[in-house]
Amino acid sequence: MTRSWAVFRCNSIYTFFFFLLVAFSTKGFSQSQTLTVSVPDADETNIHAVHRDNLKKHLTILASDSLEGRETGSPGIKKAAEYIVTEFKKYGIKPISAIGGYEQKVAFTWTSWKEITLNINGVEYKHLWDFLAVSAENNSIPELKADQIVFLGYGIDDPQYSDFQNVDVRNKVVLIYKGEPVKKDGTYWISGNSVASDWNNNIDKKAEAAYKHGARLVLVIEDDIKKHLETNRRKILGNAMSLGLPDSKPMNKANVIQISTSIAKDIIGKSFKKLIRKRDKINKKGTPESLVLNSTLSVKMEKNVRVLEGSNILAYIEGEDEVLKNELVIVTAHYDHLGKKGEDIYNGADDNGSGTVTVMELARVISKMKAEGMGARRSILLMLVTGEEKGLLGSEYYVNHPVFPLKQSIANVNIDMIGRVDEAHASDPNYIYVIGSDRLSTELHTINEEMNKLHTKLLLDYTYNAESDPNRYYYRSDHYNFAERGIPAIFYFSGTHPDYHRPGDTADKINFERMESIGKLVFHVIWELANRDERIRVDVQSKSKP
């Protein structure tokens, strides 16, 4: 028996059982009528299942040094996009007329500091050590000099309490504390109860208030500058990227620099005890207090601004049911990574080359099935998004500029880092972290559990799905932009490892066998979602991002 005959025989039998299942489908595990189509396990000849050899082939290319880490806007990520589009064409996936092909173009504005200096009383302080300023959140200031700095309490301008009352801060530099006035019993003056107001942790709001009253610069006292830097590394370090073209108009807010307590003491000088008394009086009586500090300041804040183009890559496979094909299951993974830093290449094999090639392989399987008359009832959109490492920007762009109506998108299945094994599961790699499946739809959670029980039997670990999880992974990958808009989302993740965001995240360390198993689970979940009689219900009240 030749290989071609074996494949033909497998396909013929498979097609027969497919239509048999359609004819005799009965109620599944959920209350709604379902159509569950099982695909045989992969072997060396099976073209209808995710296969480790294909995963390895693609990842070896996408995580190679020649692509230089696939940073958004770089030549490397453009090479990656070209490779992915070429593969989609090979699979017979048609271009999308609405975007004129496979790529949804996304414009990014990339900002960084060209020069940033801070001098207080003749002492030069160091950026990212003594003080912090985010380039994307500030205007350029060629030079600003002041011979006085105004202490302005908490920098709040609210009907219940205003630090700007009877104080002229036009063209001035102001020094403020974080937070808001709080009574000795723990209640807040503005809200009148134990719940903090919007002013408490909103530096932008304070910067807008300062701008409204004419201030040029706000210095915010940060209790632990090093901890703040570690907590906000991605936002603060290096280049900042935002969606869209740069706005030619300046931001309607004063510039903000977060300073260490050492700088604050240098500014306050001999007025330290007096200022502390005023701060305590604010908290005790709920009335504003200010103080003019005779310290000199010199600041330069000049930005580099570049416009880059990226693209989300879309593979659309139309459904077969004349009614249900208008609904859509969206499958996502980000294909960008950190790029090249000096001589080091951050290849991003696991993050997120692993998710990228899994989506590519799913596109191959699903498009092949459609071509052979075994297509899904609903349409499926497999999308590789850009700009995730810059703040989930590619997926944010899509939900703000959807190619297909979001109201017709029934679920998002997101894959991010499934190629390695974390320390907690070193002795048994047959696991996957599942995040978000029950946040909006109990049916989505049940489907994942049942598909795993029937087909893959992985350990489903919900550790990172807990509301109390300090890692907050639910908010840190592309599915969140869909979930935020009420679309049920499930996120597959294998956890971190010592090479996370390091040059050591290379293809030779990937476990392709377990990737294949996870890919099969993802396929069956997609297939169940795309073939049910009824779309899954949103039956859990969503919670806003804390």
Walk me through this protein's architecture.
The chain is about 30% helix and about 20% strand. It is an alpha/beta fold and about 550 residues long. It has 2 domains: about 50-105 and about 305-530, Aminopeptidase; about 125-295, Glucose Oxidase, domain 1 (3-Layer(bba) Sandwich). The strands form 4 sheets. Strands 1, 2, 4, 10, 13, 14, 17, 18, 19, 20 and 21 form an 11-stranded mixed beta sheet that branches. A 6-stranded mixed beta sheet has the order 3-11-9-8-5-12. It has a two-stranded antiparallel sheet with strand order 6-7. α2 crosses α9 and α9 packs across α13 (about 510-530). The radius of gyration is 27 Å and the shape is elongated.
Proportion of helical residues: 25-40%
Strand content: 15-25%
* Biggest sheet overview: 11 strands, mixed
Compute the number of helices: 13
CATH superfamily of the largest domain: Zn peptidases
Give the quaternary arrangement of the chains.
single chain
Task: Give the radius of gyration.
Answer: 27 Å
Count of individual domains: 2
Unreliable spans are 1-45
The count of β-strands is 21
